[in-house]
Structure formats: C-alpha cells, structure tokens
Design a protein that fits this description.
It holds the Pfam family Methyltransf_3. The chain is α/β, with parallel strands linked by helices. It has one domain (47-226): Rossmann fold. 44% of the residues lie in helices and 19% in strands. A seven-stranded mixed sheet has the order 3-2-1-4-5-7-6, sandwiched between helices. Strand 1 (67-71), helix 4 (77-85) and strand 2 form a beta-alpha-beta unit. The protein is globular.
C-alpha cells in the first residue's frame, strides 16, 4: 500500500519515508486504508494521516489512558489506533452518524482483537455527549477525547468534553489550521467552519481550566489538557 495517500503532504517523499520507515504500521491498517480508498474514492481524504494517528495513539498509551471518546469515526482507522493503545479493560466510545463508513472498520477492529474495547454510537456527537453528561457516574471520568467531526459543532463539543474529562485528561482537536484559512480574518468571517475551528482553538487556549498548545502538524492539531 502506497502511504503517500495520507495528509496534506501526501506528495512529499519525506512523509512517505516517515510513515513507512519510522513507524511500525501493521498490514491490517494498510488494508483498512486500501479498502477505504477503493470504496469511497475522494471521501477517503477524510482519513486521519497515519503519522498523526500513530502520534495520538502514542500519547494515549504514554498517558496510561483507559477511557476515551472519539467524535468522527469515518472508517475506523483512528478508532483502531486508540483501541490498540488502551489496556485490555479500556473503553473507547466512538461516535458518528453514518454506518456506511463505520461498518468498514468493524471487521478490522475484530481482526485486531480490539473490537470489545470500542463502543460504536451512531446517534451523533451532541446527543451522545448530552446522554453521558446526564449520568453523574460518567462526568469527570474520561481520560481523553479526539474530535474530527462536523466542524461547526467543535465549540459545542469542547463545552461538553470539558465536563466529561477528569483532571489531567486531554482533548485533541483535528483540522485546526484548516488549510491555513484560520489565519485569514476574512476567511474566519465568511466561512462557518473556519470560524468554528479558530474559535475552539482560541477558546481552549484562553480557558483557565486548560493548558493548551497547537502544532502545525498535518492540518493542525490542538491539544488541551484539563488542569
């Protein structure tokens, strides 16, 4: 499988070298990506770049996380990465709205032996998060969250995840550069998605409950840790 498919640097040999030579990515993951490309064509660009997914899973593993939330599953590549990083009794609540994509991931999760760690919910992010918030036993118990879903709702996701996270837990927001558009005030003014991505990154940065940093990695990754 040619790894150059992934990410905004997909045509650069360095990215291919890093993915293929500096990471141990299983054949199973390459097969998942290949099936995604074959079935969904241009939509396969929604896949999180492999080096980013492995990086985030590494953070989850190093943090000793056991309980997480993923908003935006697509065909389940990042779900697989996170589930592999969790311990045997770990739990990932993977949230989306479209089973035609997520159904691809299920067989790969099972083949990897991590399917029991993943609870797939297809009711949409706001509905599932509000359900979790209504349960006092869930509030303040999650170790991490990853958000790569509908961009206009990013600020609403942050509000809810801030309550669901434990102290020391962290949120990872994808696409916070949005092909550089967030740096352009005119783009932020006219485009709802650009405005929401800029808003969530700056809101997290200025929220006294969090320590936050962003990196120019792939399409921008913002990480906010709850104090």
């Amino acid at each position: 499988m040619n790894a150059t498919h992934w990410g905004v640097l997909k045509n650069q040999p360095i990215r291919q070298f890093v993915i293929e030579s500096y990471n141990k990515i299983s054949d199973l993951k390459f097969r998942l990506v290949a099936e995604t490309i074959e079935k969904f064509g241009k939509d396969s660009e929604m896949l999180t770049p492999a080096d980013q997914a492995e990086h985030m899973a590494f953070i989850v593993r190093v943090a000793g996380a056991k309980k997480g939330i993923e908003l935006g599953v697509f065909t389940g590549y990042t779900s697989l990465c996170f589930a592999e990083a969790l311990p045997e009794d770990g739990q990932l609540i993977a949230i989306d709205v479209e089973d035609k994509y997520a159904s691809v991931g299920r067989k790969y999760w099972a083949e990897a032996g991590v399917d029991k760690r993943i609870s797939l919910r297809l009711e949409g992010g706001i509905a599932v998060l509000d359900e979790l918030l209504a349960d006092p036993t869930q509030v303040g118990t999650f170790d991490f969250a990853y958000v790569d879903a509908d961009k206009p709702n990013y600020p609403l996701y942050f509000e809810r995840l801030a309550l669901l996270l434990r102290s020391g837990g962290f949120i990872m927001f994808d696409n916070t550069l949005w092909s550089g558009k967030v740096a352009d005030p005119a783009e932020r003014e006219k485009d709802e998605k650009t405005h929401a991505l800029y808003t969530v990154a700056t809101t997290a940065l200025n929220d006294p409950r969090f320590k936050t940093h962003s990196i120019a990695f792939s399409d921008g990754l913002t990480i906010a840790q709850k104090l």
